Request: fold
Amino acid sequence: MNRFQHIIIVTILSAFATEAHSQCEADATVYLTDFVFTPNEFTISVGETVAFINAEGVHNVDGTAEANPESFFLEQSEGSIEGLCMGTVTFDIPGTYTFTSSIGVQSDLGMNGTIVVDAVTISDQLYDLTDGNISGIAFRTYLSATYNNGLGEGPNESWTGDVDLNGLDNYTVFVPSTSAVDDLMQLMNLSSFDMLGFYDMPNALKYHVVPGIYMASDLENGMALPTAEGQSVTISIGDAGAMVDDANIIATDITAFNGVIHIIDKILAPAGYPGATTWDVIVQSPDHTILEQALLNEGLNEALRGQPILNDNEDAEGPFTVFAPTDDAFFALAEASGFESVEALLASQFMDDILYEHLVEAVYESDDLFNGQYLTSYGNDNIVISINSDGIAANGSSIDQPNLLAYNGVVHSMSEVMPFDFPNPEGTCGSWKINMFTFDDPSEGWGGSTINVFADGSSIASETMTTGTTESFSVPVNSGSRIDVIYNSAGGFWSGNHGFEVEDQFGTVIYTSFASPPVSIYGLNPCEESPTCGLIEVTFTDQSQDGWYGGNMAVYSESGLEANIFFNPDFNGDGFADYEGFQSRPVMVTVDEGEIDFVVTPAVSFPNQTGYIVEDTSGNIVIDETSTNQAPPSTLNVEICENTTSQVIESEIATDMISIFPNPVGISAQIKGLEPNETWEAFVYSMDGKLGHQKRGTSNEVLDLEALAPGLYTLQLRVTGKDYQAIRFVKE
Reply:
């Protein structure tokens, strides 16, 4: 047959289309001639039928290519000008199909064709949903979109998961609405990115997927539908409509070729799966109220409210494994350790260390634990896991209820607190009580102002009061400790309309502040007789009203550090110093007999406008450094307790003598007050008399003190031709 004849045959095919179609009913038709399939490329939808009509020659239709989603084959026939119906093929599986004729004119001469079978999948519908947008992203990301993308062993994309919302298996998917996701994100303090970062997201999503197609009309009251996760969801039908578990079905029958979607107003949580953060798990437990309070006191609640963040640009703690002692466990620990109450234990300086040893910054469910395993605690110590016939234990303390799952980790409930080595209890002498009170209207209260209590420089308690007449809290005290009770104002109109007092272990009031605002006190000595000298008052001034920003004063007696007064401490534990300006601020300091040193670190802002005044126990001014033309100097070797009359000590005390600068020191310091070319020899001793550093130098040559540990030191300085001089300094 020549080319002209072929053209004629192709042209007249339309004349027989009606007759041929009547012979072979279909949604699409392919005609066979000696040279071509007409059409040879086209697209149909899933479930549509294609008819093959032989108009010329002897042919078959061979659709058995290995790559075809499904094979098909039509036996050979001899065509006629009228068009012979070879048969029909219905395509129920989406994909790309190729076909040829293996009889007559061969495929390599151009007799081949392609049929694309298209379908709207559940994944496609999820993409198009405007309601449930974030949910749609989650389903598509973790379930539908995990293809090899042609990189697998076969020529086509292949599915690697057990739930394929793009595939051939039929599913019913309950998709949470946008508002449902938003509500949960607000509750959990999550961003959409963090939500998708939930470590067990695939299994959480599979609980929303039911194999098979269940239209709204198919749902019955009490029906249990097995999910792809393994557990079942329960259908209930009431006057308000249909529900799945505790979620309302608010939109139904969004169909796809491989299933149906229903929109729900709440995220489903299967038994044993998280519905909260680790913090929420603890708060919601009636057996962990003491742990809750302890975590609050130490500021760890925010860390446990966090979430596993996958974005490297965001800094967030967690996820966590929390070994959570019950209330009974804490009561037992307090009694066994000699605390008069569990409140005293909570207020102790040991609680932060105890809590840190019960937190691990990683997720370890019970199946992840093995005998002899070492976990690194939040406090950077080891937690040893032991597993035997009695169950699982951490550092020997039993886990009674494991796997309380959360979005940001897991909580294991424990009947015991992990062992903790308390300091020698011989020095423990009881607890003090801090009473906070309001002078006038209780509604005015303290307005959010705070009392912070420190023992030897370490925080042991903090209490914030907003409204109310009185509020009290207890702190444990040890013999030989130095207790600082520091008032931190929240500001506002009523910042001075309140006060506080300190009661010792016998109920005796040892300090009261009725000032406006209350005055902090430093250097209280528990369980011992009051110092023979008593209380002195140090008033700090700042004409710039920057509040000695960045400056501080350390007060030393012959027995050691009495007070370390900071004006911008980080009481909140967030790494940022609280700033509060002032023009004048008094503090009280307890001192002993003998020489007293007032070591000043100048303020960063306008140090030349700062100053201080020291009054002895009788109210006499013994130091006045209120000049506004220079930064106030340190004042050393002052015998305050022997002054019976007013004696104002000016800066000559500090400047006329040889000194070390700066004080407190960092990695190095200089000797000040020496004449040019004067030679000297320096010996640095710790408070226990150990030689820490020795050097010979000339004039203002630098002392290298980097190797010294932080603490109080004495510099014995021998200058040629002069007597030894002792200089006390602090290494930061």
